[in-house]
Write a structure and sequence with these properties.
Blueprint (H helix, E strand, L loop, with lengths): L3 H12 L3 E6 L9 H9 L5 E4 L8 H10 L6 E3 L13 E7 L5 H10 L1 H4 L5 E9 L7 H6 L9 H13 L4 E5 L10 H10 L4 E4 L5 H9 L4 E4 L1 H5 L3 H5 L1
Parallel strand pairs: 1-2, 1-8, 2-3, 3-4, 4-5, 5-6, 6-7, 7-8
Helix pairs in contact: 7-8
The structure holds SN-glycerol-1-phosphate (1GP).
């Protein structure tokens, strides 16, 4: 299994080069709209396209990623809400464990269910700690996973979860305020986590402006994910980047 994309993320962190991913949710975007969407993404400095969502209908992801692959050379990374969303047509998979929650389904059971598919796949598997932080609204991840996010005031719990993730051997930590969050992850939280771990940090949820993007980067985010802002307006990247 190639480790090319993880190496790229680690090398970029070492060089201080910040990365951007656009999140496309196959439930919110039709395959017919993909050519226009991909054309907008291709025009910008986007490092990865994440594909995923919490409630994607079974098997849509395969056709969605297949079409997307024909429209862009940007690496496609699966960000699945469920093991049934896996497809070999992507380049890599964030192999997520929802470590902020205490639901065994998302800590280990989904991961075991995915093994039959993954052992015959060429996907680069990237072990990723997924830490849900209160973004001010009840997010889809919260509803589907039936777990509570960690309060933004509870920095110790967030930092200790991130440190435990690194001890567990996770290769990335994803600080997630949730799609459409009204409160993005507070820069102080990003800064404190960054001081305490060496692995790259992904930050997403509620980032809609250049100012928020820069704050996240300047405080230690290595990779920022933007979904909703781009979904609502395909020209949003012109003002954010
Ligand atoms: C959600 O972090 C991503 O999983 C992106 O969030 O849709 O709010 O940009 P937004």
């Amino acid at each position: 299994m190639s480790k090319a994309l993880l190496k790229h993320i680690i090398n970029s962190k070492e060089k201080g080069q910040k990365l951007l991913a656009i999140l496309l949710d196959p439930d919110k975007l039709t395959i017919a709209n993909l050519p226009d969407t991909a054309a907008k993404i291709n025009l910008n400095k986007v490092d990865f396209i994440f594909v995923g969502g919490s409630s994607v209908n079974l098997r849509i992801t395969d056709a969605f990623v297949g079409k997307l692959k024909s429209l862009t050379n940007i690496p496609i990374i699966l960000f699945p809400g469920d093991y049934t969303h896996l497809t070999n047509k992507a380049d890599a998979l964030l192999f997520l464990s929802l470590l902020s929650g205490r639901n065994p389904e998302y800590l280990i059971e989904q991961q075991i269910k995915s093994v039959d598919f993954l052992k015959n796949s060429n996907l680069e598997i990237i072990p990723t700690a997924y830490i849900l932080i209160d973004g001010g609204i009840e997010t889809a991840v919260q509803k589907v996973s039936k777990t509570d996010p960690i309060s933004q005031n509870n920095i110790d719990e967030i930092v200790n979860t991130a440190i435990a993730s690194e001890y567990l051997g996770k290769q990335l930590v994803y600080l997630e305020a949730g799609s459409g969050a009204t409160d993005a992850v507070n820069p102080e939280i990003i800064k404190t986590v960054a001081k305490n771990i060496d692995i790259p940090i992904i930050v997403g949820g509620g980032i809609r402006s250049k100012k928020q993007l820069e704050l996240a980067y300047n405080n230690g985010a290595d990779l920022v994910v933007i979904g909703t802002a781009f979904e609502e307006n395909n020209n949003a990247l012109n003002s954010i980047l």
